[in-house]
Write a structure and sequence with these properties.
The chain has 330 residues and is α+β, with helices and mostly antiparallel strands. The chain has helices at 4-10, 14-23, 91-106, 112-127, 135-155, 157-163, 226-237, 241-252, 287-292, 320-326, and strands at residues 27-31, 37-42, 47-53, 68-75, 78-85, 173-174, 179-185, 191-194, 208-217, 267-277, 305-308. It has 2 domains: 4-127, no CATH class; 135-326, no CATH class. The protein is 35% helix and 22% strand. A hairpin with a 5-residue loop joins strand 1 and strand 2. It is globular and about 70 Å long. The termini are far apart.
């Protein structure tokens, strides 16, 4: 049987895998051993999986699952047995499962089909989950709901829910006098991913603010889970049309009540939340800025980048509605 220490040395760390996944570029991560094996990432599909060199007459079984597919694929005239995870919500959780399957083949001597069934048997609960929030989306939704709770205190339930866009438009909130983009990180530095060139661009003349949350895991009995925060907001809203609108936007943001069993992490603020006006000099990339530099934007179909706000001086002149939003405790 493989020890965890030996297995760890064979595979890229979860942090390394996360960096490859976040880059949105295709990668083949080799797994040392025989037969040749790779963990592959194909963002364009999207899917990740395990690829193992096999004989040409090998057949792949039908898994009967809609989140995991087994197949034979030929690369550079070489046949490979591939197991592909096709639900992006499962990618991070599935990575150690794929590594475990590679160990069963290369170290324990199982055939790819035998290793597949053994892995499915051990990890069926994980692999059968049709919908699951990624950790990134869990944290992001937590941050948005913190702001929504504060906005309810300023605008009331109906107008606050109407202001929350849930990721369906460029900015997360459209308040009466300003737009708000919400970013949440679990890192020690205030670093946030920006998903496009328009995310930090103002809409017309409306002021744009970025709200930055830093979260960390809480000790037993402290903090709250995302499920707890959803229930708190639901209680604030009550019933009626506003509740219907909230549930619709919550679903659009990726939430389903079936997620509750898997969302056990309790979160608390690592530091006080901050709000920054997105004005000239704020660290960002925008379509208008790049276009004015003479760059042909049609040749850059997608841009994703990170900003580090750790050393940025906190804003002191913050509108009252945003002060209330970033101070919400639930």
């Amino acid at each position: 049987m493989t020890t965890s220490g030996a297995a760890d040395k064979r595979h890229a760390s979860a942090e390394t895998f996360d960096r490859y996944l976040a880059s949105r570029a295709p990668y083949d991560l080799p797994v040392k051993g025989s037969p040749d094996a790779f963990i592959f990432i194909v963002p364009s599909k999207p899917e990740i999986g395990l690829r193992v060199k096999v004989d040409l007459d090998m057949e792949a079984p039908d898994t009967g699952l809609h989140n995991i597919v087994a197949r034979i694929a030929v690369h550079d005239r070489t046949p490979f047995f591939e197991v592909a995870i096709t639900s992006s919500a499962l990618f991070r959780d599935a990575y150690p499962v794929l590594c475990s399957m590679a160990d069963r083949i290369q170290i324990n001597g199982l055939s790819p089909s035998e290793a597949l069934w053994a892995t499915l048997d051990k990890m069926s609960t994980l692999l059968l989950a049709p919908d699951s929030l990624s950790r990134e989306r869990e944290v992001g939704l937590f941050g948005e709901l913190l702001v929504l709770g504060g906005v309810i205190g300023s605008l009331g339930t109906a107008k606050a829910v109407e202001a929350w866009r849930g990721g369906t438009e460029e900015h997360d909130f459209g308040l009466p006098a300003q737009d708000v983009e919400v970013k949440t990180t679990t890192g020690e530095r205030r670093r946030h991913w920006i998903e496009s060139l328009t995310q930090l661009e103002r809409t017309g003349e409306r002021p744009l603010w970025l709200v930055s949350h830093q979260l960390t895991t809480a000790g037993a009995g402290n903090g709250r889970t995302l499920s707890d925060l959803v229930d708190t907001i639901r209680s604030e809203i009550g019933s009626g049309l506003a509740r219907n609108d909230f549930e619709r936007t919550l679903t659009d943001a990726g939430w389903h009540d079936d997620h509750r069993e898997r969302l056990e992490t309790r979160w608390t603020r690592r530091s006080a939340s901050q709000a920054y006006p997105v004005i000239e000099g704020f660290p960002r990339l925008t379509e208008s800025g790049l276009r004015n530099s003479g760059i042909q934007l049609t040749a850059i179909p997608e841009v994703r980048y990170r900003v580090d706000l750790t050393g940025l001086a906190p804003e002191t002149d913050i509108p009252d509605i945003i002060k209330t939003a970033i101070g919400f405790e639930g």
